[in-house]
Fold this protein.
Amino acid sequence: MRSLFLFGVLAAALSTRAAAQGVDGKTLYDENCKKCHGATGTPVAPMKKKYEKLVAFDAAFFAKRSDDSVVAILTNGKGENMKSFKEKMKPDEMAAVAKYIRGFAK
């Protein structure tokens, strides 16, 4: 009985710790976005050539977009070149990516 109690306490502590750490936007970006958008939000030349409308995540990009609008693009895709990520990421993960890439504008 005591070991069951300790297991419950440990599980609750780990759950609280995971929630406090939150979702890792950088890891999600690296796994899903970096190939096209570049390591620092600036598309590499071959991708820019392939997708001419691919923009950099710079101050001008974020002057026109909120994190919610970035999540909407991740959810719905944009045109034929930007696919939806709703099957790969949860809404909180998309929000973490939006928050992470906002750092590229600094």
About this structure: Residues 3-20 have pLDDT under 50 and may be disordered.
